Amino acid sequence: MEMLQEVSSTIPGWNNSDISYITFDATKGQLPRRQSLDGYDAVVITGSGAGAYDTDSWVLKLVSFVAEIYKDRPDMKLLGSCFGHQVICNAIFKASEDGPAQTDLPPVVSRNPKGWELGIQLVKLSPEFLARFGPVGSNPDSPSEMRLQLVHQDRVNAKSITKAFVRVGQTELCDVQGIYKPGRVFSLQVHPEFNPEIAIECRKPIVEETEFEGIIKNGSGGDDHLYAACAILEFLREEVAEETVAMEEVTEEEVFGKGAV
């Protein structure tokens, strides 16, 4: 949230805004009471070393909580990154598995058979997402791609996502790098809040020391966290639509007539 506060001070219309929040530790069973959400704009779910499909009681309660918020509080936005992205998808799309026509689908969230995705990677943004948030101005050589930190080995099954949602983009190792539904849901597999030092610390238990040189070099060329932060802020000030339908398909040629962030 500090990242959003910092970025908001540089954006017209946001420079006098104060982003306030309350933190809950879901791993300790801490979740907000439903009535306490009044007066807030969004529920934010951040990262974790756990899996969104785990059967630990706190994970099950968190997924159930998010599902209830999505169903019963259309005035409340859902925002998530990494584990939070996966929890949101599990909460929203898992119910679709219960229908008889859906029984042959794989789980909404599962281990990625392609393995870990680490370091700064290129996320190829979907034309629909670019149409809403514009090209990546901080990546002029490839403005349809966003460079951000990734530390994950689970993935969201692309077939689980319903037509009411836009897929943010994809990488070589992961087809679903986030989902977006105007005024309701925005999730990212990436970590826009990670600086290189935090990202390296998170990866220490995962990779061998000999791999660090390549990972550090991969992250030395900068990233596009400001673009992601601006997109999040734009999402937070969207009006909640009574009924949201799938965004019209667009092409990249149509997108790049728009301004860049």
TrEMBL record:
GO terms for cellular component: cytosol; nucleus. Residues 37-196 form the Glutamine amidotransferase domain. PANTHER family: GLUTAMINE AMIDOTRANSFERASE DOMAIN-CONTAINING PROTEIN, GLUTAMINE AMIDOTRANSFERASE YLR126C-RELATED. This is Glutamine amidotransferase domain-containing protein. It comes from the Eukaryota. InterPro entries: ChyE-like (IPR044992), Class_I_gatase-like (IPR029062), GATASE (IPR017926). It comes from Pseudogymnoascus verrucosus.
